[in-house]
Amino acid sequence: xxxxxxxxxxxxxxxxxxxxxxxxxxxxxxxxxxxxxxxxxxxxxxxxxxxxxxxxxxxxxxxxxxxxxxxxxxxxxxxxxxxxxxxxxxxxxxxxxxxxxxxxxxxxxxxxxxxxxxxxxxxxxxxxxxxxxxxxxxxxxxxxxxxxxxxxxxxxxxxxxxxxxxxxxxxxxxxxxxxxxxxxxxxxxxxxxxxxxxxxxxxxxxxxxxxxxxxxxxxxxxxxxxxxx
Length: 229
Description:
By secondary structure, the protein is of the alpha+beta class. The protein is built from seven helices and six strands.
């Protein structure tokens, strides 16, 4: 008999078991129904949240296997989220740029796709659509920030040979912001490095932006300024 569910992850955002009704659970398992061929049969609205005991019964597994599989699925989703944040941080600011600039940014990061018939604007639009859909998915929790308006500024210190020495989120408080900038420039002077300020959805994405070309960073700065004008 086919297993009627697949595990999408484990979440602490839903604490009531949809099977037995027990409340106040530390976590629940997100289960997506499967069709007769074993394919996912539904959307986020069709997902149910079971406690680990009820999920084990529904799947015919041990609770240990349910928990292990749930955490593995959640790690995969976290990795997809991280990739989506990088894509949005890199390409969303260039979305409104002239076609030539979009092409320079895209092919600069994807050199093997140059002269292959792949259109930079279409590919970039597809990547952004998929990334936004990933962060908007509510299967194992609320939607995650994915707009340019959600970007935060990060201060990046680079070594003399262009490697990242440290990344720090820029504080909201003006006094702390000036103190942080002064400390960063002192450190950069000590290592004969340099300082950049970039905008991104998280620190890892900020690293990608910092390592990108001048044109990508220029549009990144324009997008931040436009969003906070």
